[in-house]
Amino acid sequence: MNNSIENEKTTSEQTTESTENMLLQTETPKALIENVMHDRDMKKVSDKQAVSKILVQVGLYAFLIIMALIVVFPFYWMLISSVKTLDEYNLTVPTLWPQTFDGVNYVEAFNTASLGRLFLNTLLVGVISTVLSLIITVLSAFAFARLEFKGKNALFAFLLATMMIPGELFTITNYQTVSKFNWLDSYQVLIIPFLVSVFYIYLLKQNFLQIPNELYLAAKVDGTTDF
Questions:
Q1: What one-character DSSP code corresponds to residue 227?
Q2: Minimal CA–CA distance to 206: which of 150, 113, 142?
Q3: What is the mean pLDDT of residues 20-47?
Q4: Band of residue 34 on the pLDDT scale cut at 50, 70, 90
Q5: Are 139 and 200 within 8 A, CB to CB?
Q6: Distances in Å between the alpha carbon of 77 and those of 71, 89, 112, 122?
Q7: Long-range contacts made by residues 92-98, C-beta under 8 angstroms, separation at least 24?
Q8: Which residues lie closer than 8 Å to 149 by C-beta, 6 or more apart?
Q9: Tens digit of pLDDT for each residue in 61-85?
Q10: 3-state DSSP of 3-26
């Protein structure tokens, strides 16, 4: 009896193993086919994404190039018009490239409008205004950021409040002031009224506040001055 029972178990186990092997053999090709199809689908999707990405980049650069040409064209037209002759400039159909280059136009412009003197005035006013404004802005911003004195916050709030006043309101008063000082037709009128910028002081003050106060105190301990 025992032998017969064991033989039946062995037979059933063999049957089960053979059945599993048959199922594996039948399922393996299906799984391979599914994997191949999945890989093909993923490749198609990736190819479509790559193509769409390239098209987007091409469209973006084409748009940027067109916008750049639109921006640059007025400067190009200004430059080529400056070297055209008067007859060519007055043509009904404008030319995109000068037929003849006439450099005499620049000579006449410099002599007629005194452009050399105007450029020199601009250089002097720009350099002097920048240097003095930089000194005033740095010292003021440092004082509001690091030094302690009475009314500091109130004074700074008052300066910020002046930013809300339109600059056009100061036109008449500024003219009256410079007239009383006899600054008309002088460099002072182009420099002094514009030396102080509350916005620059505020911006630099916030920059100073980002630096840890411990560094400032450590420098003071080492004997350095505020300057």
A1: -
A2: 142
A3: 60
A4: low
A5: no
A6: 11, 11, 23, 25
A7: none
A8: 143
A9: 999 999 999 999 999 999 998 888 8
A10: HHHHHHHHHHHHHHHHHHHHHHHH
Under the banding of pLDDT at 50, 70 and 90, the label for residue 16 is: low
Three-class secondary structure of residue 195 per DSSP: coil
Helices (H) and strands (E) in the chain, counts: 9, 0
The tens digit of pLDDT for each residue in 170-214 reads 888 888 888 888 888 888 888 888 888 889 999 999 888 888 888
The first and second tokens of residue 51, run together, are 């193509």
Amino acid at 99: Q
What single-letter DSSP state applies at residue 1?
-
26 token code pair: 């039948």
The three-class DSSP label of residue 86 is helix
Q: Residue 1: what residue type?
A: M
How far apart, in Å, are the Cα atoms of 111 and each of 47, 86, 104, 107?
65, 18, 11, 6
Distance CA 205, CA 194 (A): 19
